[in-house]
Amino acid sequence: MSRGRASRAAIVAGLSLVVAACGDNGAEFDQNTLDPRGEAARKIDDLFTPFAVIAIVVGVLVVVAVIYAAVRFRARAGHPDNPKQVHGHAGLEIGWTIAPAVILVFMAVPTVRLVFDLAEKPKGDIVEITVTGKQWWWEYEYSGDGFRTANEMHIPVGRPVYLTLESDDVIHSFWVPNLAGKKDVVPGRTHHLTIEADEPGEFLGQCAEYCGLSHANMRLRVIAEPESEYRAWVENQKVPLQGEALTFASDPSGPIARYGCTACHSLDGVPNATARIGPNLTHLASRSTFAGGTFDLTDEALRKWIRDAPGQKPMQPDKNVGMPSFKDSMTDADLDALVAYLLERQ
Ligand SMILES: [Cu+2]
Questions:
Q1: How far is the CA of 312 from the centre of ligand 1 (A)?
Q2: How much distance in Å is there from the Cα of 26 to the middle of ligand 1?
């Protein structure tokens, strides 16, 4: 293969890898900040697009000028053709200092205005959710309704959702590109972010700040629903365990007690089962994914996970980060009972 062909092949291979990264994730909207589906994201996009045009125009002008100068004034035998020297030319110096400064001020004013605008707490009929970043999943507390869930956030369409962002361990970053900008989630600090969706749909998000081994497996979904469906979901989440499920989960000789599940996980309604190290499992069956949005919630995936979570997703149980492995300690019968309980009995 000639060198030209080889480099063309390399470029095509590289580009196809990049394009392959934009695969189908099962959600309707793949993380695309250029496809705004809510007010905050749209305001950012409305600022970004004209600025991108300005940047492209400036960039093209500079590149064309550089190429022109390089070609026009290149060294040629017998042709000195030196350009006229302009060093110290006051008019030019002032001109090329002021022109970029004017462009920058023109861009800075709306940018700063939007930064303050987006930071403001929305008024009216809003939803408030406290988001806690954890290695490696997201906890959502619907404080007004008194329940906690994980990774999949339900929001009502057309209502601003004011998020309070906190971290339990290291720095994370909350980002749902179709709905809003990115906001860091920093231990010891409280940040806020407003998201809002124009239409029903499932919007993908991702932790956007490297936070350890399973950073790439710290995904999230925002599920925007019409008000009535959202309310129905909230009412369902508020219901604690009852009946057979409560009996199973509270049984002091049952698998949940024997494997110490409630040392890390909450089970609403079960006495003392309020730990927040791992996700609240009360309504796990109502979610479509688990483990930080890493796996679809299926019988097989859940089985593998409970058996040996660190084998499924890089974690550090030796440092008390993530779920331990039960591969040598859990019986098949217990595993069957736990999976059936988590998937069916709720
Ligand atoms: Cu991260």
A1: 17
A2: 21
Distance from Cα 264 to the centre of ligand 1, integer Å:
21
- Model confidence over 166-179: pLDDT tens digits? 999 999 999 999 99
Instruction: Give the helix/strand (H/E) hosting 201.
Output: strand 201-207
Class of domain 243-344: mainly beta
Q: What is the pTM of this model?
A: 0.86
Distance 139 CA to ligand 1 centre (A): 14
Cα–Cα distances in Å, from 156 out to 77, 141, 144, 159? Answer: 73, 15, 14, 6
| Cα 160 from Cα 157, distance rounded (Å) | 8
Q: Candidates 3.90.1570.10, 2.60.40.420, 3.40.50.2300, 3.50.70.10; correct CATH number of 127-238?
A: 2.60.40.420
Per CATH, the number for 37-119 is 1.10.287.90
- CA angle 252–254–255, rounded 5-degree value: 125
